[in-house]
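Changelog excerpt

This revision adds worked examples to the README so contributors can see how folded entries look when concatenated. The first example is reproduced verbatim below.
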Amino acid sequence: MRVFKAFLWVVIAVCLANIFWIVAGRPHMTAQEAQTLREEYTRPAASSAPCEAAADEPDIDFAALQQQYPDIKAWLTIPGTVVDYPVLQSGADDPEHYLRRNYDHEWRMAGSLFFQFDCTPQSRNLVIYGHNMNDGSMFGVLKEMLDEDFLREHAALTLETPEGVRNYTIVAAMKTDINQLPFTRVDFAGDEDFLSFAGQLLQTSGYTADQEDRLLTLVTCAYDWEGARTVVVAVETE
């Protein structure tokens, strides 16, 4: 009987260790992998001061990075937060491929940030999804954007792409769902259609969209009701 009890305690301890590793260790691993990847593919610093024409060139060598990991389409950074991750994209046949996988297709509890499958670099609304992790990693920080002071202090973000660096300013944060607000739209019939969409998306922000605007919409789970999402919207700046 004592041997059985000892065995049972060993099993319980192993299970608890595995749960801790899944909940705490895996998200940390994902963040560390992202930083290691960035360091590996960051261009060497130029020996002389860069010219102004190169100011929008990404630090990341996307040509080399995409040779190894073709599904990495961009790199998102929100300074002052933990968000400093690659953004991946899979196809319509498996749009949530990276929901629980890293850039190397290995299983990760935290998954990866990923574009909606039908986004393109020309989309007037780019949509990125990420997990709302309890440890604050991935898109766990988005819920903090609901606080106006926090949003103001962390409103700037950058999206590095093979085409160049895009700078954005966050103008809105909300809890909603797809039935209340069609935040996943990426294609529009024309300027009027886009402005109607942007007006609806930003109606509580005080920001008035222009037909030249390009939006970046960040989405993560909220748990206030079934299907609830925290949605953060940024506008590209020059």
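The second example, added in the same revision:
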Amino acid sequence: MPRKALYSADLHVHTVASAHAYSTVNEYAQHAKTLGIRLFAMTDHGPALPAAPHPWHFKNLRVIPHVLYGVGILRGIEANILEDGLDCPDDILDELDIVLAGFHQPCIEPQSCEKNTELMIRTIESGKVHIISHPGNPEFPVDPEAVAAAAVKHNVALEVNNASFKFTRKGSFENCIALIREHGKAGGLVTLGSDAHHTHSMGHFDEALKIVEAAHFPIEHIINTSPENVLLFLEQHGKDFRKFLEFFERQ
């Protein structure tokens, strides 16, 4: 029997469409039900990453129901931050329920802390992004205070990425603590993301919670403690989820 998830929403999940992930939308929805996950976000990699989905994949996400097997689904993307913006057209991003964005090699090479910070803040200020994914990646160092201030000003959440401490982005721990500590001081919001590439990792936030605890980040500023919190946050960015909220209120 799979262990129950600590929180009932997971906002960072990759499907087989990302080519290096191994579970389908249906498999995630069915597994989410067993975990007590009530809402998850499909956030396949943006098209600049090798073997990632074509932009049409994201355009056509509207065919995916918002509810499968009694579990809510957000249609989203983990876009790539590039030198000249994000790697998905604005008209497609505007149609999605949720947009994550982060640095990924080989889409962009790591640069100086100053340049990385500039690009991340520009992304935050764009009005197109709701969450910055794995911002503590040591390959792309940023200024914690500057990033936190920009994220708070534009109501963008910073992710604490569970996979960064288990499978990838080795050395993230101290960077994440510094960033999340500054974000907490500034009154910012955080999401915990599994960054699952298989159902087995869905809803796993144990390592991310160690960062939250070490940074003394206030639990009440974690968005994905409930689907309602997530949807209300996205409504602050202009999304209309009245009917979706009614679904969760009826549960």
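Reviewer comment on example two: The mean pLDDT is 95. Strands lie at 9-13, 39-45, 67-68, 71-82, 85-86, 98-102, 131-132, 157-161, 190-193.
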